[in-house]
Amino acid sequence: MNRIDLTIEICGLSGDGTIAAGGLLNEAMSRAGFSALAFDSYPAEIRGFGRCVTRSRFGFDRQIALENQTNLLISLDDEQSLSRLPFLAADAVVLFDNHPPSPVAEGKSIAGHARPAMSLFGAPFRDLAAAASGSAKGRNLAALGVLAGLLNLPVDAFRERIGKKFKSKGEKVAAGNIRSFDAGLEYVLKTYPDRLRPLPVPAAPAGQAEKVLWSGNVAIGEGALAAGLKNYFGYPITPATPIMEYLAARLPAKGGRVLQVEDEISAIGAVLGSFYTGARAMTATSGPGFALMTELITQAVSAESPAVIVDAQRGGPSTGLPTKTEQSDLLAAVFGGPGDTPRIVIAPTDVTECYHLTARAFPLAEKYQTPVIVLTDFYLDNRVENIERPSISADAVADALLKPAPDQAGSYHRYQVTPSGISPRALPGTPGFQHNITGLEHDERGVPDFSPGNHQKMSDKRDRKIQGALADLDPPEEYGDPGPLDVGVVAWGSTFGSALDAVQSARDQGLKVGCLKITALFPYHEDRIQAFMDRSKTILIPELNHSGQLNTLIGHLGRGRIVRLNQSTGIPLYPSTILGKIHELIGEDRS
Questions:
Q1: Is the pLDDT of residue 1 over 50?
Q2: Whether the domain at 213-397 and the domain at 477-586 fall into the same CATH topology
Q3: What is the pLDDT averaged over residues 224-234?
Q4: The domain 5-191 is classified under which CATH number: 3.55.40.20, 1.10.357.10, 2.60.120.200, 3.40.920.10?
C-alpha cells in the first residue's frame, strides 16, 4: 500500500465557512486514522473581512511541519484563491464552485489561471447545498462532500463530525448539513466517475486509543488543569485569548476561577497575589501585554514570588501583526526589565510539549520562587495536531514549595542565603513566620538594604538559584548521526518541526547533518549546546525574527561558525526553506 503525504487548503472569504470546513476536515481525517497537522490564517479584525485559509497536512506517519506546496485546493472564493496559486504543486487538484453566488469578474476565475498539469473539478457548491437543505450556507459542506467522493475518503467519519458539530443547533440543522455534504458526494461520483482519485486509508494499529485533535492553546489549558491550576487571570489578546476561553469552560467545574481583569498589569498582579497565598495561578498574553507586565515580573524576581506566564508571540513590534506568527519575544522574556532579573524561560516545540511544559511550569515556579515564562507563538498556539492524549504523573506536578522548619518560628528570614539560593518560603498568616515582601533590594529578613555588599550577595543568590534550575529543565535533544556534521541545525519553538523535517530530508539524501532541539532557553544547558556545535562544521540557526535572537543568546558558543536564517514574514518557516539553506551551506544544488 502506498503511503501518502497530502496537503489540502481551503480558501474563502470571511463568512464562507472556511475555518469551519477546515476543522471538520481535520476531525474527519483524524477519525479515519490519518495523522494530521493543520493551521488556519484569518484577518486580524474582530469582525473579519478578508481572506481565510486553512492548511492541513495528512499522512500515515506523524506530521511535524507544514510545507509550502499544496496538493489540493478547495476554492470557496475564486478571487481570494488566486493568491494561493504560487503555493500549489505543479500537478495540484483544484475544486471550485462552477456556479458561484455572484458572477466572477473577468480574469478572476481560478480555473482560468490553473497551470496545464493541474486537474480542475468544478461543482455547483451553492446550488447543491440549497437543493439539499434549503439553505446555501452549507456550500462549504457540499465542497467537503466533493472532496470525500473524489478521494474515496471514509464518509461516515465526515457525517459523524458534521452531526456532532451542529447538534446544538437542533436535529433539523444537523440533518440539513449532512444532506449538503451528501449532495456534494453524490455529484462528484456521478459527474466524474472516471476521474476519481481514491486514497489508501491507514490501518489503525490494534489496541490504539483514538487520538485527540488539540490546538496548542487547548494543550496549554489542559496542562494547567493537570497541574492543579486554581486561578486564571487574563485580558483578551490574540493569540492567547482561546486559553482563557477554554479554561473559562473547564476550570470552574474543577473548583477554580477564571477572571477577566481590566488589563495585563492587573492580570500579573493577581497571579502574584494568588501564588503568594499558595494557590497556583496563571496568565497568558502576547507581546504587547507582556511588555505591560514587565515591571511586576521583575518585582517578582526581586521578591522571589512564583508566577506562570504564557507569552503567545505574534508579529511585532508594538501591536504589530495580531494574527501572524513570530519568535521575536525571546530576548524580552529572558532579559526584559530593569536590572539583573534572571527568570526561567521554556519553549515547547509541538502541541504535546505545550501540555507537558505548561504543567511543569507550576512546580518550577514554586520550587525556584520565580516567574516561569512559557514562550509559544501564533503558529504553535493556533495549529492543531492529532496526538495521543497526554498525561503527567502526580509526582511531576506535586507541590514544590520549600517550607521553613518549625524551629525557625520567631527567627524566620524570608530571604535566607543558602548554597542553592532557594530560601524556605512561609505562606502568609503562618504563626511565627511573619516577614516582609518588597521590590526594593533587601537583606535576608526582607528589610530594605542598599549597601554594596548586600546587593552583590542578593544578586549572586538570585542568579545561583536560577542556574540551579537546570537540574529540572530538559536538556537539548539531538537528532541525527552522533559523529562530525557538515551542518548542525539548532532550533527552538515551532520552528523546530520544520528544522527536523529538513534535516531528515537532508539525511535521506546522504548529507551529514543533525538537529538540536532546545526547550530550556534560560537558563540553558551550555555544555550540551557547546558539544553539539563543536561537532558541526557549520551551525545553522533558523528563527522567525529579524535579528536572530537565539543567536544573540547562545551564538558565542558557536565560535564564529554560526549562520543565521531569519524570516519575519508572519508565516512559518517551511522545511524546504531550511533544506535549501543546508544545500547552500554544503555547496550542493538540489533544485
A1: no
A2: yes
A3: 98
A4: 3.40.920.10
